[in-house]
Amino acid sequence: MKLQKINLMEAYLIETLRSKGITNQEILAKIEQGSVEGWKDLHEHFNFHELLKLNYDDLKPILTEGYKIKYITFNGMQNLIKLKFGKVKDNDYQLSEKGINNLNLSEEQANTLAQMISPNWVFNWDGGTGSLTHK
Asked: Residue 81's closest CA among 97, 104, 55, 61?
């Protein structure tokens, strides 16, 4: 399966909506209608109109099958882990100079993370904790 590639901001927008309890179906309906005004209060710094650049046919597999992020910065990875999995530094993982260590993940979360990260990261998982190294 070839996953669609999206940028980090598109991933933030999608995962912010999901973290607020908005379903894939609701996201798709709003995109199809071209109306995302109801989401403007969900995050004061995000412009959800950016998702309108993705048409319904492109967005549907992104939401249902997953996606790959084109490039993720060090801070971007921490933000994504928090948005997607609710994991926070010092509680769920530790930072090192080159990456993230002792990241507590379920098998499903580890599979999702491995699928979505950009090629500038290496992910290793040992069945309970993972590590991410920035290339």
From this structure: 104
- The answer to whether the beta carbons of residues 69 and 11 sit under 8 Å apart is yes
**What φ, ψ does residue 40 adopt, rounded to 5°?**
-60, -25
Evaluate if pTM is beyond 0.85: yes
Using alpha carbons, select from 6, 135, 134 the residue that is nearest to residue 75.
134
Residue the block writes with tokens 């412009």: 47
Task: Please report, in angstroms and rounded to a whole number, the separation of the first and last CA atoms in the chain.
Answer: 25
* pLDDT one-digit tens code per residue, 99-134: 999 999 999 999 999 999 999 999 999 988 999 999
Judged on CB neighbours under 10 Å (0-12, 13-18, 19+), 23 is exposed
Query: Residue 37's Cα: distance from chain center in Å?
Result: 22
What are the backbone dihedrals phi and psi of residue 89, each rounded to the nearest 5 degrees, phi first?
Answer: -55, 145
Length of the chain: 135
Q: Is residue 24 predicted with pLDDT exceeding 80?
A: yes
Cα(123)–Cα(121) distance, rounded to whole angstroms?
A: 6
Q: In a 3-state reduction of DSSP, which class is residue 118?
A: coil
pLDDT score of 1: 65
